[in-house]
Every structure is written in C-alpha cells, then in structure tokens.
Write a structure and sequence with these properties.
Elements (H helix, E strand, L loop, with lengths): L1 E3 L5 H8 L4 E4 L4 H5 L8 E5 L5 H12 L8 E3 L3 H11 L3 H6 L5
Parallel strand pairs: 1-3, 1-4, 2-3
C-alpha cells in the first residue's frame, strides 16, 4: 500500500518501484475497484486516504484478513512541493491544504 497526500508521487512510485504488481490506483468502491483484483499474487494500492492512520488500519486489516503480506509506504512530501505539483497537473488542492499526513 502506498499512501500520501495528492501529488506526492504515489502512482509514480507504484509504477516505478512495483512494476510486477497489479495497480489499484485511488480506489473509490471496494466492491468494484478492489475485490475483483485481489486474487492476483501481487497488488499495489495507492490512495491518499492511506495518509491517515485510521484508514491505513482498516485497509491493512482488509488485506491481512485475505492472506496478504503487507508493506506500507507513506510518501511524506512538503506542502509547498505538493502545491507546486498540483498547479502543474491539477488535482485536489483542498485536500492538500486542509489535511496533514499522519505517520
């Protein structure tokens, strides 16, 4: 699992560091976006909500209950860098400005 605020590089990290994994990028609906793909041997999930301890704990339990060995990566990028990246690619500025990463 890779967490971090929007524009922190979660998807880029997943594609570059885990090319042999199936990418579930910012899932919205567990039944539609996650469940059909968890039968695969290697899955990487990126999600800005994994920036928060409570959400991480729920996700970790979900995958542990299904027999996955979990590695969690949290990308901690300064807000100034996040906002610069957001200007270039668009995104969720309100998420970046209103929330703080929980390690």
């Amino acid at each position: 699992m890779i967490g971090g605020l929007p524009c922190s590089g979660k998807t880029t990290c997943a594609k570059e560091d885990y090319p042999d994994h199936f990418l579930i990028d910012d899932p919205v609906d567990i039944d539609r976006d996650v469940l059909p793909h968890i039968e695969r041997d290697r899955v990487v999930v990126t999600d800005p909500y994994l920036s928060f301890r409570e959400h991480r704990a729920v996700a970790e339990k979900f995958f542990e209950d299904r027999g996955f060995e979990i590695t969690t990566v949290i990308l901690d990028v300064s807000k100034s860098v996040l906002l610069e990246r957001e200007k270039l690619k668009g995104g969720r500025k309100e998420f970046i400005t209103h929330f703080k990463l929980e390690k």
